[in-house]
Amino acid sequence: MALTPITLSGTLGERHRRLNSLVREAGASGASLQEFQALPEHSPVDRLFKIDLASQLRHVDYIIQNLQDDDMLYVSRALKSKWLVDHHDVVNPKHLEDVLFPNMIKPAVSKLKHWTYINLRDPAMCREFYLYYKDNAFEFAIKFLSHCSNEFILGEIPTILTKLSSQFLKILSEKCPKVAEIYYNSLATDEEVRRRYLENQQSYYNSVKCVLKSDADVFLDITEKYFDMNGFRRLSPSSSDYILRCHKHRFTSKPELYTAYVLHMQTLADRLSVEECQELVMRLARAKYLQSWFQYKAVEPLVKRLSPDKRAAFKKRVFVDKDVGESVDEWTYEVPAPPPHTDCSKHIFDDQYFKPILPIIKIPKRLIKKKKCGVSRNKCDYGIIESTVQTKTELEKLFEEFRFLGFNRTLHDLRLRLGAASSPERRRDIFMVLVSKTGGRSEAVSALLSLAARHRNEPVHIRAAVVRSLVKRAQVWRLPADVWNNLLEFGHGLGLDGSTPEAECKEGLHAVLIRQLLAGECQPAISTAFLKEFSTLSEYSLSPAERVQVAAGLENLLSAAALVAKPFVAAKLLDQLLDALNTYRVTIEAASPVVGAIVSLASRNAEVARPLLQRLYQAKVARRELLRLNLEFRRDQASLINVLRHDLLALDYKQFGEILITSKTNFDSFVSKLAIYFQKDDFVMQLRAKLKEKLFENIEHMENNDKTMKSYQKKQAKLARPLAGLSGRDLEMDLQELDSKGPELRILAAALRANAHRARPAVAVASWGWRRAGVKAVATRAMRGRQAERAELTRALAAHRRTLRVALANSMLSAREAQVHAFTAAAQRRPAAAVRALFIYFRRFGDKSDVSIWDIVKPVMLSMDMSILSKRDNLRRLIKDQVKVVPSSIKPDYCVTLYIVLLKTKIKYLYSNVDNILCEVSKHLPQIEDSLELVLLKMLEDADVREPVTYPSIFVRYLLLSKSDEDLESRFEKLGKPFLAHLDAVRKEHDWVFRKLFSETMKSLMYNAAFFDPKCTSCLSVIEKFMAWMESFMPREQHFKQYARVHLTMLYYKAVRASVQQLPAVFAAARRRRVEGVDAVGFVFGRYIARELAQLVTAYFDSVVELYADALADYVEVTLVAGSSRAQFVVSVLKGILAEGVGTQRRLAVYIFKRRHYEMKEPLQKELEELMYKEKDIEVLVHAELERARFY
After folding, report:
1. Superkingdom, according to UniProt (predicted)?
2. Separation CA 1143–CA 998 (nearest Å)
C-alpha cells in the first residue's frame, strides 16, 4: 500500500504516469479509501492521489467534499469523475442549487455547470435541467434541450422561437430536422422571430444547412421559399454535389433558380452530361428575367463541357446570333424571397419629439479667423469632372470581336492584320489575343511561335508582354526543343539566358529555370539571376510530378547557396527555402538538411536565426530536438513547460529566474506545475530563492529616496505573483519579513498579499482581517466566495469605508437584503462609489432592477457637487452617458433627476449638452409630471432673451396633461403665463429665434398621449389659450394658414375623443388601435374638416377651399408623424371629407389626394379615385387634376 508523502521523479510526463500507476496499484490491492483518507497530506500530490483513488473506487462523498474545496486544482481533479453524472441524487438541478452550489466557490460553480451540460446525456435528466432553468437562465437551459427526446423538442420549440439564436438553431436542427421547418414556418406569423431572422438571415440559413443530408426536403423547401437571391452565397461544392446526386428532381423542376443563384457552378457542370449542359445554357439564354446575369463568364463551366470542335459554334449561336428560340419574360414558378421586413416606421398615433433649440452664443471677434485661399481673389480653380462610365480599351474590343471564334480562324484573320498594324501596341494586342486563344495546346503554341519568329525585331517591351502571357497561359517549359528555341529566339534581350534584361520579364526567366530543373541541371547564370528575385513558382500550373521535381531542385539550389553565404543572406535564403517547402507541401523532419542548416546558422548568429527557429516551432518541426534553442529564443510559458516534459537537464534556475523576471507575461501554468509536481526538487527551492533575492535587491540603497523607492517597488511587484505560487506555507514568513523592514516596502507587501490566493496550500486570508490581508486579497476572497457565506461577508465588508466597493460588487451576487445594506452604507460613506455601482447594477439586472436601490442612490445624486470645481468630470460624464442602461421603470424619474443635477453644475449649454436630457424627459412626461414642475420653473428662471428656453414643447405638453380645469388654471398661472411672456420677450428682440420657438410650440399642441388619455380633460382649453395668445400679435386674416393648423389640431382632438367613445373595444386593444383605430379617427377627422370648411365658405368666400387645402396639406406633412400609417390615415380623412362634404367643397379631397397620392399604395389610390369619380359636382375637376398629377 502506498503511503504519503508520495515522491515522484523524472519528467513531468513520467511523474504523471507514476502517480497514475500508484492509484491503480492502490485500487487493485483492495484497500479502502478510508485507510488512505486518514493519512496526512504533505504536498498537493498526496491530495491528488486520494482524489484519483476515490474516483477509481467511485467514492461519491469524498468527490463531493473536494468539489467544495477552495482550491480549483482539487475541484478540477474531482470533476474527472465523469461517472458522477449517473448519480441522479447528486446531479439534479434542485440538489445542485439548494445543497451543492451554495457551498462551492464561484469558479467551481461555473466549472461544475459547464461539466454538467458537457457530460449529461440522459434525455430524462436533460429535460429536468432544461425545465428547471428555462425561466431564469435560458442561455444555460437550452444547452440541455438538444439532448432531450425529439418529441419534447418539437413540443418546446414553438415557445422559444423568439429566443433562438442561429447557433442553437443549428444544434437543435442537427438533432431534429423538423425544428428548422418549424422555425421558418413561424417567420410568416411571428414578428419578433422575423425581426431577429432578418438581422442576420445568412447566419440562420447557414445553420440549417446541416439538415440537407438528414432531411433534404425540409432544407430544399426552405431554400426554394426563403433563399435571398440578392444576398446569400451559393452552396458549397459538396452540398451542390449531394443535391445533384440524390435529389436531382428538385433541380430539374427549377433549373434556372438553382443554376443562377443556389448551386456551385463548377460542380453543376461536372455532374451534368454534355447534352444536359447544352440544354441548360439554352434554357438560361431564353430566360429574359436573367438577362442581367446571363453572360459567358457566368456559364463558362457549362459551355466548357462541350468538345472544342463544337464549342465555338455553340458560343456563336448563343452569344452572337442569339438563336435560342422564343424568350421567356417571367419566372414560370414562384421564386424565393426573404420574409418582408416588419414596418418599423413611426405610427400616426406616436408623438413627435423635438431637439433642443440652441441658444444665441456670441463669438468674440478675436476667435473668428479668416479663411485664407491658396490663390488670389481674381483666380478660380476649375475641376474637371470625369465620366464614370468605363470605355473599353482597344485590347478589350479585340477580345470581344474574337471571343467566340476558335484559334485557327483567329490566327488566320489576325495574321493579316498583324502586318497591316501601324503601331507596336496594336501588334501587342493582336499577339495577346492569339496567346489567349491557344488554350495552352502545344500545336497552337507552336503555330503562334512560328508567327512570332517573323517578328523577333519587335520592341523589347512588346516581346516581353507576349512572353509573360505565354508563360502564364501555355506552360511553355513543356514545348518541344525546336519550338522552345523559337521562344528563346523571340525573347532575346529579355534575360532568358541569365543576363541583365532590357525589359522586365521575370516569367520568362522562371520558365527557363523550371525547364532546367525538370531536366536535372541548372546553369549558374540562371540560378544567380533567379535568386536575386526569388519566387516559389507556385503561380504556374505544374503537374504533380513536376511539383516534386521543382521542389527538390529548389531545395538543392537554395541549400547550396545558403552554405556559402554570409549569415544575413543565408537567413534570407533559408527563409525562402521554408516558403518553397511549405508551398509544395514537403514534409520537414528533424533530420532534414534545412533543420541542420538553421541550427548551424544559429551557432554563427543567434539573432539572425531567431525568425527561422520561430517558423520551425510554429510548424511543429523538431520541437524536441530544438528544445533548448527554442527556450533561449522563445522564452515563453510553452517553452518552459516543454522543458519540464522532455528535458530536465535543461532546468537552470538562473535562466528560468531571468525569464520570469524580465518577461511581461504571466507564467501561472508553469509555476503551478512546479508547485504541484516539483515542490521538493532543489530546482524549485533555488528558483524561489532567486525570485526572493531579486525582490529585495538594492532596497537598502533606496531608503532615503521615497520617489525612487516607490518606482522600484512597482517594477519589482510583478515578481510577487510567481513568488506567491512557489512559496506555499512559507508565504506568511515572507510577508513577516517584508513587514519587519518597515512601511516603506508597503507596495511590495501589498502585491504579495494580493497574490496570496495563489499559494498552495492556501493561506487563511479570512482569519487575518482585511487590514492585515489587504483589500485586494479580501476582494479576491469575497468575489470567489461561497454563496452561503456571501451575505454575511457583504455586511462585514460594508462596515468599513476601505472595503465598501468590494461590498457593492459582492452584493450584486447576493440577495436583495445584502444589496440594500451595501448601497445604504455606500451612500453614507462613499457616495461617488454608490453612484458608479448603480450603473453596474442596472447593467447586470436590467428590467429586474429593484426600485429601492434607485431610491437609495437618488438623494445621493441630488446632493453631490458635480461642478467643474469638484473635479468630478468622469462621474458627471458617466451619469449622462449611461442613460441607455437605466431600466424603463426607473428611466422617467432618473431623467428628471439627471436634468436637475446637470442644471446645478452651471456649465455652458454648448459644452454640457444638458438640454439633450430633455428629449428623454419629454418621452416620459405622463409618468413624471408630478415631479416636473420644479424643473420647468428652474428652466424659466434661468432663461432670458439671449438664452431662451431651448425645449418649449415640454411646457406645452405639461399643460396638456392637466387633469381638470382647476389643475389647468393652476399650471397655467405658474408656468403657462410666464412661458408666454418669455416668448413675447424673445419675439421683440430676436424674431428669427422666436419663429423657431413658435413653430415648435404649435407643433407640440399635437400630443396623442394626452388626447387618448381620458383623464386629460382640458386639452381643448389649452389649445384655445394658445390661440388667444396668438391673436394678440397675429391677425387671423394675415395668418390664415397658422390659425387653420391650430383649428385642425382641435378637430383632430375631437375626432380622437369621439372615436374612443364610439369604439372602446378597438382602442382598448393595442394591435386593433394601431390598425382599425387609424381608419376610425381619420374618417371622423375628415367629417369634422368638411363641416368646418362649410362654415368657412359661408363666412368668407368659396375660394377659401384652396387656402384651406394648402393649410391641410402642410398640416399633414409637418404635424402628423411620418410613416406607413400616415398614408392610411390620409385615405380615411379623404373618405370622411367626401362623405360629409357639400357640393363643390368636396374638391378639397381632390387637392389633398393630388399632393399626397405618392404615399399611398396602388389599391388605395384606385379606391379613392373611384369614390371621387362618383361625385358629379367635382367630376370634371377630378379628371383634370388627376390627369395633371399623372403627367407630372
Report:
1. Eukaryota
2. 36
Give residue 749's identity as a one-letter amino acid code: A
**Residues 765 and 869 reside in one and the same domain:** no
- pLDDT of 695 reads 76
Write the CB contacts of 531 (distance below 8 Å, at least 6 apart in sequence). Answer: 557, 558, 561, 573
Give DSSP secondary structure letters for 800-820.
SGGGHHHHHHHHTTS-HHHHH
CA-based nearest residue to 61, from 50, 71, 70:
50
Q: Grade residue 1162 by pLDDT with cuts at 50, 70 and 90.
A: confident
Both 770 and 804 in one domain: the answer is: no
133 lies in a domain? no
- Specify whether 723 is located in the same domain as 824: no
Please say whether the beta carbons of 630 and 639 come within 8 A: yes
Look up the pTM and report it: 0.81
Instruction: Tell whether 1143 is covered by a domain.
Output: no
Q: For residue range 997-1030, what is the model confidence (pLDDT) as tens digits?
A: 999 999 999 999 999 999 999 999 999 999 999 9
Query: Residue 663 pLDDT more than 50?
Result: yes
Q: What phi and psi values does residue 832 have, to the nearest 5 degrees?
A: -65, -40
Where is the domain boundary, 877, 896, 923? 923
Helix axes 178-186, 166-175, angle to 10 degrees: 140
User: Taking CA 965 as the corner, what is the angle to CA 962 and CA 966, rounded to the nearest 5 degrees?
Assistant: 95
Cis check for the bond before 5: say yes or no (omega within 30 of 0): yes
Q: How far apart are CA 959 and CA 972, in angstroms?
A: 7
Instruction: Please work out, in degrees rounded to the nearest 5, the angle formed at the alpha carbon of residue 75 by the alpha carbons of 73 and 76.
Output: 65
Nearest Cα to Cα of residue 721 among 747, 750, 752: 752
Would residue 907 count as lying in a domain? yes
Mean pLDDT estimate for the chain: 85
Query: CB-based burial of residue 183 (10 Å sphere; 0-12 exposed, 13-18 middle, 19+ buried)?
Result: buried
pLDDT in tens, 227-250: 999 999 999 999 999 999 999 999
- Regarding whether 843 and 777 lie in a shared domain, the answer is no
Q: Tell me the pLDDT tens digit for each residue of 49-98.
A: 999 999 999 999 999 999 999 999 999 999 999 999 999 999 999 999 99
CA distances 381 to 125, 374, 384, 533, 691, Å, are 79, 10, 10, 46, 71
Cβ contacts of residue 612 below 8 Å, gap of 6+? 571, 574, 575, 578, 598, 601, 602
Q: Which of 869, 893, 923 finishes a domain? A: 923
Q: Kindly state the cell numbers that stand for 485.
A: 528555341
Q: What is the spatial distance between Cα 130 and Cα 85, in angstroms, rounded to a whole number?
A: 16
CB neighbours (10 Å) of residue 885? 16
Domain that holds residue 276: 227-338
Task: Decide if pLDDT at 262 tops 80.
Answer: yes
- Report pLDDT digits (tens) over 117-134: 999 999 999 999 999 999
453 with 527, same domain: the answer is yes
What pLDDT is recorded for position 911?
41
Give the alpha-carbon dihedral of 423, 428, 430, 435, to 10 degrees: 170
Instruction: Copy the grid coordinates of residue 332.
Output: 414560370
- CA angle 805/807/810 to nearest 5° reads 110
